[in-house]
From TrEMBL:
The lineage of its organism: Bacteria, Pseudomonadati, Pseudomonadota, Gammaproteobacteria, Oceanospirillales. InterPro entries: AAA+_ATPase, ABC_transporter-like_ATP-bd, ABC_transporter-like_CS, P-loop_NTPase, PstB-like. PROSITE patterns: ABC_TRANSPORTER_1, ABC_TRANSPORTER_2. Keywords: ATP-binding, Cell inner membrane, Cell membrane, Membrane, Nucleotide-binding, Phosphate transport, Translocase, Transport. GO terms for molecular function: ATP binding. Gene3D superfamilies: P-loop containing nucleotide triphosphate hydrolases. It comes from Billgrantia campisalis. Residues 21-262 form the ABC transporter domain. This is Phosphate ABC transporter ATP-binding protein. Signal peptide: none annotated.
Length: 267
């Protein structure tokens, strides 16, 4: 049955929410080949925003731009602006390490460091220094709890992180990222390498974390986007096609391109 469509018009509909990130006219190319075209969107604070769209539409490229992961790629050219809590992330006074602490990132494949569970979570805290052993212990416990992993690992904190299952490893990586108290957590298909039970745990975790921080999730899984996100941005060929509350985008998409994608008629 065709869904009734609201009239096409302004596609950006997150107006009542306070923004964490504001992206304006962002255009990005790899070796001159455009990957993002004039993207403008606001990412609401303490909400889950999903980026969806067909393979190659620019989801990961956009995510990586939010904590300046393109800085080291000389083939990347870009223009536009990205603001975090009102501040331009490319301003000369912004230290990129501090930006990446504030805007943490979790990738598709779990990547724990070759060290113990405890040391993985303490890693970023030790780099910053100045914490007593007791304070470090407290934060490690807090972060493992926040990542819904504490109960499973509290008796083996000195074991290798690699002794954990894939799903546990991914929650450990999330704990490691949370330990340095980011304001934003970027998740690039965080569950796509995991089994269904681990996937559900990650989804529960994402939902629970939004009381503390802003989450941005790239996913190929439409059900996952519908289950966990408050807002959904649909990208196609580097353009932002439609963006709004997830319920609206999934049940009453404004544009045929969005409908074709979410109903599986566009790969
Ligand atoms: N490091 C890179 N160098 C050159 N081109 C790149 C690079 N990364 C991505 N691209 C190109 O940029 C475009 C967008 O890629 P991107 O990975 O952002 O898309 P995506 O929507 O995340 O895709 P997928 O869902 O397959 O992960 C694609 O055409 C891709 O080939």
């Amino acid at each position: 049955m065709p869904v009734s469509r609201r009239p096409a018009g302004p596609i950006i509909d997150v107006s009542p929410e306070a923004s964490s990130l504001e992206i304006e006219n962002l255009t990005l190319a790899y070796a001159g080949k455009p990957a993002l075209r004039e993207l403008t969107l606001r990412i609401p604070r303490q909400r889950v925003t999903a980026f969806i769209g067909p393979s190659g539409c620019g989801k990961s490229t956009l995510l990586r731009a939010l904590n300046r992961l393109h800085d080291l790629n000389e083939a990347v050219s870009w223009r536009g602006s990205i603001r975090l809590e009102g501040q331009d992330i490319h301003a000369p006074e912004v230290a990129v390490d501090e930006l990446r602490r504030r805007v943490g990132m979790v990738f598709q494949a779990p990547n724990p460091f070759p060290m113990s569970i405890y040391e993985n979570v303490a890693f970023g805290l030790r780099l910053r220094g100045g914490l007593s052993r007791r304070r470090l212990d407290d934060i490690v416990e807090w972060a493992l709890n926040a990542a819904a992993l504490w109960d499973e690992v509290k008796d083996r904190l000195r074991a290798s992180a690699w002794s954990l299952s894939g799903g546990q490893q991914q929650r450990l990586v999330i704990a490691r990222t949370l330990a340095v108290r980011p304001e934003v957590l970027l998740l690039d298909e965080p569950a796509s390498a995991l089994d269904p039970i681990s996937t559900l745990k990650i989804e529960e975790l994402i939902r629970s974390l939004k009381s503390q921080l802003t989450l941005v999730l790239v996913t190929h899984n439409m059900q996952q986007a519908a289950r966990v996100s408050d807002y959904t941005a649909f990208l196609h060929e580097g353009e932002l096609v439609e963006y709004g509350p997830t319920d609206d985008v999934f049940t009453n998409p404004r544009l045929a391109r969005t409908e074709n994608y979410i109903t599986g008629r566009m790969a």
